[in-house]
Design brief:
Helices cover 32% and strands 18% of the residues. By secondary structure, it is α+β, with helices and mostly antiparallel strands.
Length: 82
């Protein structure tokens, strides 16, 4: 993927997306449920920024070969991530 500027945008429907600045194709979408927004006292956009930041950093490390999440021996089934 060529290097480009990314932007975080809150859409009119409340979804928060990560996309390339030069087009409107959405790369990642975060959709906080109303109870989560209430719990975060309206700071869900700041949480989304942090989540996107960490995700982009991890993706960069994976591309550079510094981080390997895939284990060929693992069954490809849903996993609980916590």
């Amino acid at each position: 993927m060529p290097t480009s500027f990314l932007e975080i945008v809150e859409l009119p429907d409340g979804r928060i997306v990560l996309r390339r600045a030069e087009d409107e194709e959405v790369l990642v979408t975060l959709d906080f449920a109303d109870p989560a927004k209430e719990f975060l006292h309206g700071q869900h956009v700041e949480v989304a920024k942090a989540m996107f930041n960490v995700g982009v950093q991890m993706a960069g490390r994976m591309v550079e070969g510094d981080y390997d999440l895939y284990d060929e021996d693992e069954e490809q089934a849903p996993r609980v991530l916590h």
